[in-house]
Design a protein that fits this description.
The structure is a homodimer.
Chain A: H1 8-13, H2 34-43, H3 46-51, H4 53-66, E1 72-73, H5 80-87, E2 89-91, E3 97-99, H6 106-110, H7 117-120, H8 122-135, E4 141-146, H9 148-157, H10 165-173, H11 175-199, E5 203-208, H12 216-232, E6 237-238, E7 241-242, E8 245-249, H13 256-259, E9 266-268, H14 275-282, E10 287-292, H15 301-315, E11 321-325, H16 335-348
Parallel strand pairs in A: 1-4, 4-5, 5-8, 8-9, 9-10, 10-11
Antiparallel strand pairs in A: 2-3, 6-7
Chain lengths: ~350, ~350
């Protein structure tokens, strides 16, 4: 493998000294970029784009051509695993993802296809290895998956949900079935992420988009426990280098102490959490990623810069911070505002790393 | 005024001893009840129902005929104030509330109608006094309003929003305009709630439904500060009795310590907060209201009962807890499950109040 030219992101995740705070953006490849929309049009549907290794590579690299990001992230969907399990993922324009089948009974669970990520999600692995080759060591490549709980919400509800009535009824009334489904998903996710590492991913992020819909006790029982199971089954390193894992639970700010103990090297923060307090709460256990309000990118470049300054000062001196938004970038953001955002992190962060 | 026969709710809000934990449910009058749907049909639109004092009284009392709730809450909408300010509230079937006009500039702000709640929201005051009379002292009546920030989100966005792009752009780029709007709203809300107290409300709740969309610093600056302003302008008592105020910020669990200092007597918790930890964090400063996951009402009566038990034990011994859901009851809940819920609180809570 080509040597990594910029390892700032990996070093910060391991709380090793860096010259400045690394930055990338969740959903950095996507609808706010005209070149993405052009490629998407060429590909056909969103799923066609995910399944085409060359085009998935192209949209992964597009933001890196515009902005000096410190990491690339695989372009894919969080629902590839349930799709491979046989549920039939599809998208209707203007709506969220949907599944043709749902999992609501023991029979539904038994009817899921047994999968091996290398074979059944080979298109993802082709995209990973293509991107890794094309990156040519410029920056590390992040692989990712949805968390078991988050995947389960879509599988049980059949799509997005406001109140998660179906899955919560299952969790509350049929906990054994719920745990069987989550165990199956945790093992599938571990296999999927392991295959991504073997294909070339150098760091991993688990997106727990809907863990925050649970009660404190429910989060521990139905979401965090299964992310721990995933992490415990991942390869610790690849090419002789540690593969750090980032766990991001949107709405998980109240539970940082327990999340910090789940085995991940880093915890993603959404924008509702004060990063200064978060660092005090997690101490030396994990790095932190985040956490500017994505809507701040609608504000003026000067206002964006002052917010970056506030967040950098909030985290304070030393390594262990990866700058990011507190959630995916919002479609409709002016790409020039992203320039202001990335420039601000580049220019304002070195002072927090002098003498390390 | 008739003497209050059941003051358990008011006493718990003031952390005075009670025989058992009082209970009511946010949105207890509403779509999960067939008798509500029948009255709603008779009224015409949702707004027609809010504006008809007799029918608003009828739906307010409906849940009390089924369940031994310890409080009634005025049936109304949170957007009556912006409607009176001239924005033209309307509802489209299956969608959220909408406004015909929005407030996005100094000129829009200057164009708002000056209002006096007694005159311009007289229909609300008629509903309050009608309900208070019909309650005949059975239980206290809760008046309510949306928080200034929550009202502003609808006024600036023109309706519901996923990412609050418009109002956040205003907050970040035009803070002076944002603060002028919030000041105007805080004073209107204070006048509105004061008028409700004069009309007969015996406790008040401020619904800060969208405060949780802000960053920690943004919450303090744009939401909490203005709820403090509202509370500081409210009458401390009516008929010689204190009028307690409950502040409920959905998604505000990370900020409990500061919310507890806003001047309210009680803080509402959504279901993501561990009530045991919450009590330790707020200490003796405020009572707590909440916080069962509304989706728990989809589970079996036995499961509901065990959850009530867990929450009661979490709060622990002594007064200062008002049982409630962590958000409004979900339409589609089986009314018999509400019976199980209310019965469980009634039957299981006295043990936490013996010897007080």
């Amino acid at each position: 493998m080509t040597e990594l030219k910029n390892d700032r992101f990996l070093r910060a995740l391991l709380r090793q000294s860096v010259d400045r705070t690394p930055i990338w953006m969740m959903r950095q490849a996507g609808r706010y970029l005209p070149e993405y929309r052009a490629t998407r049009e060429k590909a056909g549907s969103f799923l066609d784009l995910c399944k085409n290794a060359e085009l998935a590579c192209e949209v992964t690299l597009q933001p890196l051509r515009r902005y000096p990001m410190d990491a690339a992230i695989l372009f894919s969907d969080i629902l590839t695993v349930p799709d491979a399990l046989g549920l039939g993922l599809y998208f209707e324009e203007g709506e969220g993802p949907r599944f043709r089948k749902t999992v609501r009974s023991e029979a539904d669970l038994a009817g899921l296809t047994a999968i091996k990520a290398d074979d059944d999600l080979a298109y993802v692995m082709r995209a990973v290895s293509t991107i890794r080759r094309e990156l040519n060591g410029a920056v590390p490549l992040i692989g990712f998956s949805g968390s078991p709980w988050t995947l389960a919400t879509y599988m049980v509800e059949g799509g997005s949900s406001k109140d998660f009535a179906q899955i919560k009824t299952m969790a509350y009334d049929k906990p054994a079935l719920m745990h069987d489904l989550l165990t199956l998903l945790a093992d599938a996710v571990a296999d999927y992420l392991t295959a991504q590492v073997h294909a070339g991913a150098q760091a991993l992020q688990i997106f727990d988009t809907w863990g925050g819909s649970l009660s404190a006790a429910g989060y521990q029982e139905f979401s965090l426990q299964y992310m721990q199971r995933v992490i415990s089954r991942l390869p610790a390193e690849a090419d002789g280098r540690q593969v750090p894992v980032i766990v991001f639970t949107k709405g998980g700010g109240q539970w940082l102490e327990t999340i910090a103990d789940c085995g991940a090297q880093a915890v993603g923060l959404d924008w509702t959490t004060d990063i200064n307090k978060a660092r005090a709460r997690v101490g030396d256990r994990v790095a932190l990623q985040g956490n500017m309000d994505p809507s701040m990118l609608f504000a003026s470049p000067a206002r964006i810069r002052s917010e970056v300054d506030t967040i950098l000062a909030g985290y304070g001196r030393g390594s262990g911070h990866v700058f990011n938004l507190g959630h995916g970038i919002t479609p409709g953001v002016n790409p020039d505002h992203v320039t202001a955002f990335v420039d601000a992190v580049q220019e304002l962060s070195p002072q927090y790393h002098t003498g390390d």
